[in-house]
Amino acid sequence: MNNQGRATRAETNSASDAPTFTGNKALQIEEALSFEFGDFAGTGVDMPAPIGDVDRLGGLNRNSDIGLPGLSEPETMRHFVRLSQKNYAIDMGPFPLGSCTMKHNPRLNEKVARLPGFADLHPLAPESAVQGALELIDQLAFWLKELTGMPAVAMSPKAGAHGELCGMMAIKAALEARGEDKTRVRVLAPESSHGTNPATAVQCGFKVETIPADATGRVDLAALKEKLGPDVAGIMVTNPNTCGLFERDIRAIADAVHEAGGYFYCDGANFNAIAGKVRPGDLGVDAMHINLHKTFSTPHGGGGPGSGPTVLSDALAPFAPVPYVVQEDGKYSLVESRRAAKDEGDGHESLGRLTAFHGQMGMFVRALAYMLSHGKDGVRQAAEDAVLNANYVLARLKSEMTPAFEGYCMHEALFDDRFLKDTGVETIDFAKAMIDEGYHPMTMYFPLVVHGAMLIEPTESESKRELDQFCDALLSLAKRAKSGDVASFKAAPVYAPRRRLDETAAARKPVLRWTPEEPAKAAE
């Protein structure tokens, strides 16, 4: 036993491999597919045969079995609980995925989102019955504009990529209004951009040209200026960028693009690192989406849909999509179409409608609850703590692991695989070994501009105790890799329910449908 009373890996390894009759290992319960043990002939509910012969199905009666297994209620509950225990969750431990912001979901926000009047809203309810909801949307929009220093915000985009589409469509509409939509066809994007950036630009009919990074991992300003010309529609830059670094030349980038007649789209996926500290509007940004589900509650993967409101500058505000909330004489209403906007004399150049309804109401409630419970100073402190935690991880790990770039980082620490050179251990092996230590691996092989990238985002949620244990585990793995313990890395994960999977085969030949086994043929 070690000095904390826990068995070491070597002491427990032989016991973990001991077979059991059920396949269970104490609280790790083996669980088959419901299709494999369910009863296709019955269900968990006894329904009496219908009385009478009146058929109201209009000839649409089912003429074959439904093909789903029948389970009792206890079987159903146990099945999904057992499956949930095989998955990692933010409520179990740190979730170090870089670029994803897997932080704690404040339970207050979840409680508020479930209040009657918010949770049971219907998108077709009359405006008179949803005045409180419209006021909430309007108040959230106000604070988003305050935090970003932007005059307008489109609330309807459903997630980050949708928000990007909104911003780039606004730029397209502005160019059309200027009569330059046929001549300004190029959009510049750094080589470390999120993959959705060039995809969104292409979706809007632009051609994408990449900008190289300099030695510090930031946009090469000189290379950018060389690519500017009368055919440039704009630029898409993430700040802080995908390498976890603040673009120090951000204002110079904006000025250069504006001088060339283009617009500046900022990917706001990492706004959680600067919220309350920096207003993008002051940096020359024309459009920026905000991932509410990363910055202001229900982080990515945390149990709900996304939301990507997009803030717009004075130059792009006239082209904001409908619908949007207006308030007059204490009454809130939605402007639902460009015709209505034109009649009101505001927003008559709107790019139109992006989605069927106004947005993700549950996310709006959570985000505003997050803002109001934190306050201005709390939102700023959350950003500061996220940056502090990332730099603490960077400082703790750089003795054994290799940071991708020199200097401080923002909200995420980026490492490369140079520390594994000549060890025989690959980046993927290191990730699998983390699973045995009880941690979800960090983001691996991204961003692509760094070889063997390992991107760690601890977020502001983690205490020093949790971070120290996480760092100690990674330092231990790095030392083991350098000591020549290659076999254990190649076998990892040993303690996961399904051990190591063939990920290449799973990606290229996925089995997405269960089919019953063919009965064995009797010997002739």
From TrEMBL:
Catalysed reactions, as listed in the record = N(6)-[(R)-lipoyl]-L-lysyl-[glycine-cleavage complex H protein] + glycine + H(+) = N(6)-[(R)-S(8)-aminomethyldihydrolipoyl]-L-lysyl-[glycine-cleavage complex H protein] + CO2
GO MF entries = glycine dehydrogenase (decarboxylating) activity
Region Disordered: which residues? Answer: 1-22
- Please indicate which superkingdom the organism of origin belongs to: Bacteria
Stretches of the chain forming a coiled coil according to its record: none
Under which EC number(s) is this enzyme classified?
A: 1.4.4.2
Sequence ranges assigned to domain Aminotransferase class V in this UniProt record: 193-301
What InterPro entries would the database entry show? Aminotrans_V_dom, GDC-P_C, GDC_P, PyrdxlP-dep_Trfase, PyrdxlP-dep_Trfase_major, PyrdxlP-dep_Trfase_small
Domain Glycine dehydrogenase C-terminal residues, every copy: 382-482
User: Keywords on this record?
Assistant: Oxidoreductase, Pyridoxal phosphate
The main enzyme category here is oxidoreductase
Q: What does this protein do?
A: The glycine cleavage system catalyzes the degradation of glycine. The P protein binds the alpha-amino group of glycine through its pyridoxal phosphate cofactor; CO(2) is released and the remaining methylamine moiety is then transferred to the lipoamide cofactor of the H protein.
Q: What is this protein called?
A: glycine dehydrogenase (aminomethyl-transferring)
